[in-house]
Amino acid sequence: IVLGLLLSTSTYSAVFAESLDEFKGTAVDGKVMVTENKTVTGDSNHLSFGGTNNSIYGVAVDVSEGKTLTLTDVNVTNPTITGNGNIFINNSGNAGAVVTDTGNGFGSITSNNVTITAAGSGIDAYGGTFNVKLNDTLDITAGGIGIHAQEDGENPNNASVINIEADKLLVNASKQGIYLTNASVKQGIDIKLTNGAVITSTTRDNGGEAAIQNSNQCKGTLTIHTEQGDISASGVYAGAWATYGSSIVLTADNTKLVGNYGILNDNNRNESEISNITTNAKNGNNTVTAKTDGIRNFGGIVKLTADNGINNITAARYGTYASGTNSKVTLSAK
Questions:
Q1: Which of 275, 253, 322, 332 is closest to 294 using CA atoms?
Q2: Is 283 helix (H, G, I), strand (E, B) or coil?
């Protein structure tokens, strides 16, 4: 008779908690190395837009592969975060969770995944350039705007630019999902993905919000391109909205735009400002679903191209509506 003894073992990854001061105090030559799972908690009473106090401003952070860094109620201002870890940013204040401004003019995050949960905006460029490069998913839940490039009020000649590379993009925002605002200089948002995006705007304020919105008066462009998969944008007011001569370009296997207006394009009553919205379905359909008008176009250019499918518009009132001297709507399918 052979008696066997079965041993049961369990493994777990410890999570170390630190204050913000303790975390920054481990920096060597200006860089904090995160080699274990770590939660860093700041002061919720000192959250501010672009704040350099209660912030990781001034130190670089590197997160080792497979490790997790959670920043709670920390001002992530002009960050420089590298590595191949997983980043969680939780911000209970009404200001932006991740902000770049012209105090430094540059911010970047290179990682595996980034998850942002914010009471205010998720990512906000207030002058300067912000670059995100991820192996996997950028996931933003915001009580304000999800991704926002806006004019720097103190330095209006400094353009705000956001560049994002990731496998997937998920944005669920109370206001605009992705928003390039008006400014006195040309600004831009450029998003390159591998496996698609889902962008949602859940409320409507006085002027209305769109899941994807561009109102840069200096003809700035908001571009989302995915190698495969779909781009889905749903807003209470509009799926996509361009004005002031700006441009929105969406390229995916399939595009899906949903809202009171699926696509809203206008020149703000200035015929010299020709806004453009282009959707390119590379391997499927452009689908527009609206409670009022599918495409409502005032003095701009809207072009839907389905290379291997159809353009499908469902609307309670007009499928397509165009007015104004320069208005043009083009639907093409192969």
A1: 322
A2: coil
Tell me the per-residue pLDDT of 195-212, one tens digit each, with 9 for 90 and over.
Answer: 999 999 998 765 678 999
Closest CA to 120 of 72, 170, 70, 174: 174
**Do residues 88 and 67 make contact, with C-beta atoms less than 8 angstroms apart?**
no
3-state secondary structure of 20: helix
pLDDT in tens, 163-185: 999 999 999 999 999 999 877 77
Question: Model confidence over 62-116: pLDDT tens digits?
Answer: 999 999 999 999 999 999 999 999 999 999 998 889 998 765 568 999 999 999 9
Whole-number Cα distances in Å, 114 to 39, 117, 212, 253: 14, 10, 20, 24
Taking the C-alpha atoms of 179, 320, 244 and 140 in order, what is their torsion angle to the nearest 10 degrees? Answer: 0
DSSP structure string for 227-269: SSSEEEEEESSEEEEE-TT-EEEEEESEEEEEEEEEEEEE-TT
- The alpha carbon of 264 is separated from its chain's Cα centroid by a whole number of angstroms, namely 20
- Using the predicted structure, report yes or no on whether residue 321 has a pLDDT greater than 60: yes
31 vs 267 pLDDT, higher one: 31
- Pair of tokens at residue 24: 């920054």
Structure tokens, 76? 């992530």
* Residue 138: both structure tokens together: 């950028």
Q: State both tokens at 308.
A: 């291997």
d(CA 205, CA 8): 57
Cβ partners under 8 Å of residue 197, min gap 6: 168, 169, 170, 171, 191, 224, 226, 229, 230, 231, 232, 233, 252
